Amino acid sequence: MVSMEKRIFDKLRKLVYQKSGISLGVHKEALVTSRVGKRMRKLGMDDFESYLEHLVADQSGQEVVQLLDVISTNVTHFFREARHFDVLADLLRHWSGQGQSRFRLWCSAASSGEEPYTIAMIMREVLDNGADAKLLATDISTRVLEEARAGVYEDGHMEKIPQQLLKKYFNKRGGTGKGLWEVRQTLKQLITFGRLNLSVFPYALKGPLDVIFCRNVMIYFDNDMRSRVLANMHKLLKPGGYLIVGHAESLTGLVSEFEHVSPSVYVKA
Ligand SMILES: C[S@@+](CC[C@H](N)C(=O)[O-])C[C@H]1O[C@@H](n2cnc3c(N)ncnc32)[C@H](O)[C@@H]1O
């Protein structure tokens, strides 16, 4: 594969930024070249210029999703950064104790579903059966959303789930080969999955929300995009609503109206 000229790499960076908010580092040229080459081979294309034209012409947003799938990571797991789920459980308990019975949560970079299903387990464990509780789980990638909707995971993915929750919320699928676990309806019923691009404002979502999870996605954004994401999330939260970000994503230095509660946990005052 011929190397990507700088001019073309710059155009690609610009396009990826416009369409997804993701900032590709200037030093990523080699990695991106090889990954984009993979995508081009699939499409039967052999020059970068035509690929860029194809990307610009695509109004559906599908090609940028395909591109992001080859250049970015969807890595996630159940109970990732587990402390956040203790924070969530405490909050839901506290609000329930105050008589709240309607709960609206949003998981904004849901990837293949491990994060929203973890949130849903906590909701089921803490909230009364009669509570009016809903979780919206969104991502830019339609591919990961399909996996999330299916809710079927291999044995190796289940290690972080406490045994008692695993038994309660998943069915083991029979058959030979790798063991598979399927999410039970009781969790699925809480969640609506949908595509949402965090770099397109304002978000087509109705507030007020109680909690937003926005973890391990802002690392790909620059500070300007992060500030805009935060402002839009701030608008959607109720006063006293919480924003939970990834441990590596402190908001220090960003323009934001949130108050810091504990590492990576913020509240709308
Ligand atoms: C590394 S995963 C993090 C998944 C999960 N939040 C976690 O912490 O385990 C990042 C996810 O962000 C999604 N993503 C990237 N850019 C996005 C955007 N502009 N809007 C919405 N989701 C985006 C990716 O498709 C991917 O699934």
The main β sheet shows up as: 7 strands, mixed
Radius of gyration: 20 Å
Mean of all residue-level pLDDT scores = 92
Write down the CATH class of the largest domain: Alpha Beta
CATH architecture of the largest domain, by name, is 3-Layer(aba) Sandwich
What's the helical proportion of residues? 40-55%
End-to-end CA span:
53 Å
CATH superfamily assignment of the largest domain? Answer: Vaccinia Virus protein VP39
Strand percentage: 15-25%
Strand adjacency order, main sheet? 6-2-1-7-8-10-9
Count of all domains = 2
Q: What small molecules accompany the polymer chains?
A: S-adenosylmethionine
Q: Return residue spans where pLDDT drops below 50 for at least 5 consecutive residues.
A: none
Summed up, the helix count is 10
Class based on secondary structure composition and strand pairing:
alpha/beta
CATH-assigned fold name of the largest domain: Rossmann fold
Q: Please report the total strand number as a whole number.
A: 10
One letter per element, helices H and strands E, the order comes to: HHHHHEHEHEHEEHEEHEEE
Shape: globular
